[in-house]
Amino acid sequence: MGQKGSSGLFRAVSAFGVVGFVRFLEGYYIVLITKRRKMADIGGHAVYKIEDTNMIYIPNDSVRISHPDEARYLRIFQNVDLSSNFYFSYSYDLSHSLQYNLTVLRMPLEMLKSETTQTRQESFDIFEDEGLITQGGNG
């Protein structure tokens, strides 16, 4: 930590991925995966468990005064244990079932494109029944 490169920049932290960004009252924080453990291989795709994270404040010049509740919100958020039962993969979609992912992987590209087009055509506008005008202008 704190290694200086030839460009004059310092490496603040090494990370395996970005969990996301969070904003409370004063500015944004980036939540980084700093420790991971390989848990499984699914069809040649590695699945990792988050072992540890690091939260880094992103300085913001527009924030002039510090808010008294910022530290309290930060403590509450840090009570969420991201190292228990949070998994990720760089190449495998964990948000779908194994059956779905295997079906999509085996499906020819032409069929996949036509299925996507079909799904779009079958969609409906939830505001249509209410008689509200949507962005398309019909309704």
From TrEMBL:
Its main location: membrane. The gene is FIG4. One of its GO terms (cellular component) is endomembrane system. PANTHER family: POLYPHOSPHOINOSITIDE PHOSPHATASE (PTHR45738:SF5). GO terms for molecular function: phosphatidylinositol-3,5-bisphosphate 5-phosphatase activity. The chain crosses the membrane at residues 12-32. The keyword Transmembrane helix applies. Residues 16-105 form the SAC domain. Keywords: Hydrolase, Membrane, Transmembrane, Transmembrane helix. This is FIG4 phosphoinositide 5-phosphatase. One of its GO terms (biological process) is phosphatidylinositol dephosphorylation.
